[in-house]
């Protein structure tokens, strides 16, 4: 199987980038996108050339580190699937791959296909956590959580922080990511005490690092966790709830 790869090459954040074309003649349908990059890099190293830098870790669709743009789409042509789980057999007649780093103002390029996604970390630092008294852990049944509430919280907690939603959004918004964190923690007893402060902190961080959400909806189609647009709606809902409760106080 012959694959033509047009990969973005950029040596460091301050250098201009460019595309370089490569051809693999020994690709197979079973290969994932990262397997293709591995095969290409094996050849480049053997030839004494610089390998293409890219992020990966678990390669099981859990860690969220592998995100790249494939033919102008975050992760690749298969919806709601991370880059490491995109296999050539899913690409149909596509034999030309344009590989770029995730394109978003909030994600500066570090090198080649590697971007700095610390803007997402700053959202978590702002409010994606709960404050609990240190000490002995309470019994698991001490604070009962209903089945439906637990399932809802787990659905939103499934976000792997890959950043594809930001790259897919024409505005570079991170509302799907932030909404998943807000609604996950708001659903559980441990997160309710700081619910208002969390909404203010996270929405403030969104305004500083990301663009505004215009509900285009592209984010939900690329999310590997299948998080829906109700997470986006949750951002405004949590912010409005905080504003009204503050006025009432």
UniProtKB/TrEMBL annotation:
NCBIfam families: dhsB, PRK07570.1
Pfam families (UniProt xref): Fer2_3, Fer4_7
Top EC class, one word: oxidoreductase
Any Gene Ontology biological process: respiratory electron transport chain
UniProt protein name: succinate dehydrogenase
CDD domains, alphabetized: fer2
Gene3D superfamilies reported for this sequence: 3.10.20.30, Alpha-helical ferredoxin
Entry cofactors: [4Fe-4S] cluster; [3Fe-4S] cluster; [2Fe-2S] cluster
UniProt keyword terms in alphabetical order: 2Fe-2S, 3Fe-4S, 4Fe-4S, Iron, Iron-sulfur, Metal-binding, Oxidoreductase, Tricarboxylic acid cycle
GO molecular function, one term: electron transfer activity
């Amino acid at each position: 199987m012959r694959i033509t790869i047009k990969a973005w090459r950029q040596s460091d954040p301050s250098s201009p980038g460019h595309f370089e074309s490569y051809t693999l003649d020994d690709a197979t349908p079973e290969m994932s996108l990262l397997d293709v990059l591995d095969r290409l890099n094996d050849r480049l190293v053997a030839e004494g050339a610089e390998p293409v830098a890219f992020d990966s870790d678990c390669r099981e669709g859990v860690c969220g580190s592998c995100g790249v743009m494939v033919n102008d789409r975050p992760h690749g042509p298969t919806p709601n699937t991370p880059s490491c789980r995109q296999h050539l057999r899913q690409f149909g007649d596509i034999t030309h791959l344009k590989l770029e780093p995730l394109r978003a103002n909030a994600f500066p390029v570090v090198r080649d296909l590697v971007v700095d996604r610390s803007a997402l970390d700053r959202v978590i630092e702002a409010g994606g956590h709960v404050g609990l008294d240190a000490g002995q852990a309470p019994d698991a049944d001490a604070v009962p959580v209903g089945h439906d509430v637990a399932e809802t919280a787990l659905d939103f907690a499934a976000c792997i922080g890959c950043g594809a939603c930001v790259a897919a959004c024409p505005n570079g918004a991170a509302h799907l990511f932030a909404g998943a964190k807000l609604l996950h923690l708001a659903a559980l007893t441990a997160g309710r005490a700081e619910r208002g402060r969390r909404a203010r902190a996270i929405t403030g961080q969104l305004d500083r690092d990301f663009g505004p959400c215009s509900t285009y909806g592209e984010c939900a189609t690329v999310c590997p966790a299948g998080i829906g647009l109700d997470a986006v709606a949750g951002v405004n809902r949590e912010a409005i709830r905080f504003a009204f409760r503050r006025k009432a106080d």
